[in-house]
Design a protein that fits this description.
Its main location: nucleus. The chain is α+β, with helices and mostly antiparallel strands. Helices cover 28% and strands 26% of the residues. The chain has helices at residues 32-37, 91-103, 139-148, 177-181, 189-199, 205-221, and strands at residues 27-30, 43-58, 62-68, 70-73, 78-79, 82-84, 117-123, 128-136, 159-163. A hairpin with a 4-residue loop joins β4 and β5. It is globular. The structure holds ligand L6YBMIIZ. Residues 17-18, 45, 47, 79-80, 82-84, 128, 130, 158, 186-189, 192 line the site of the ligand O=c1[nH]cnc2c1ncn2[C@H]1C[C@H](O)[C@@H](COP(=O)(O)OP(=O)(O)O)O1.
């Protein structure tokens, strides 16, 4: 008896871009302009990091540094809100559309445009270009954005809840940010997070390198 194929959620060969397990080294940085002209036949996606600086202390001990909005995705890995760019669509416009669908953002107050673009990456084998944007809001606005998320159209379908990464490292030099980094991330989103933390001066390159080393040691110790 022939088993009927599900019409959604089946990774067809053309959906190769959605497969998990990408290596950071598979992505190379490309200029935004080139990515639009030279790689027009690739699949494009746009994702965005909304963040607010936050100088409150966690348990009067650890610097919060910033509230950053990430999400648990339908495929069980972490990433930023965003998604695929439709044919003929501008990546920033696609990002705003996805932000409405995935986290119910009010684009009359907060929207991404070309000047929020931080970096674009090409995954040659997957024929995939990833555009990444950042948007700074204040902490009150950030909390309002978080509150609206439960009413998003895609909540419980494509997105399974928003999260804030802990940006502090606890006394054992592992719990907190390094342990967070040992999760699985979609596409190149871990690298995007690290780059954005540095570009926004939320963390120094040295602090990031220390956390990444602690995370690697932890992951190796589990193997
Ligand atoms: O946050 C991200 N940063 C970089 N790449 C990402 C991120 N989230 C997903 N991805 C990758 C994974 C896929 O290869 C594509 C498509 O993204 P996705 O958000 O799943 O697209 P749709 O919601 O299905 O339109 O980007």
């Amino acid at each position: 008896m022939e088993i009927e194929k599900p019409t959604w959620g089946w990774l067809e060969p053309f959906e190769k871009f959605g497969q998990l397990g990408d290596k950071n080294s598979d992505y190379k940085k490309v200029l935004y302009g080139d990515s639009i002209t030279k790689y027009s036949t690739c699949t494009h996606a746009a994702h965005g990091m909304i963040y607010a600086l936050d100088n409150t202390k966690v348990w009067d001990l650890y610097e919060s540094r910033a509230a950053i909005l990430m999400q648990m995705r339908f495929d069980g890995v972490l990433g930023f809100p965003g998604g695929l760019v439709d044919a003929g669509e501008n990546p920033a416009a696609a990002l705003n559309r996805e932000m409405i669908e995935e986290i119910n953002i009010d684009t009359s107050k907060h929207y991404f445009d070309d000047k929020d673009h931080l970096v674009s990456y090409l995954h040659e084998e997957k024929n995939l270009v990833l555009h990444f944007y950042t948007k700074k809001v204040n902490l009150t606005e950030f909390r309002n954005i978080e509150r609206r998320n439960l009413e998003a159209k895609e909540y419980g379908i494509e997105t399974f809840g928003i999260i804030r990464p802990p940006l502090f490292t606890m006394g054992d030099n592992l719990r907190g940010f390094p342990a967070f980094l040992s999760n699985q991330f979609a596409g190149n989103s871990k690298e995007e997070l690290l780059l954005a933390l540095c570009a926004t001066n939320i963390m120094t390159k040295d602090e990031i390198d220390i956390a990444v080393e602690a995370m690697k040691k932890h992951v190796q110790s589990l193997q």
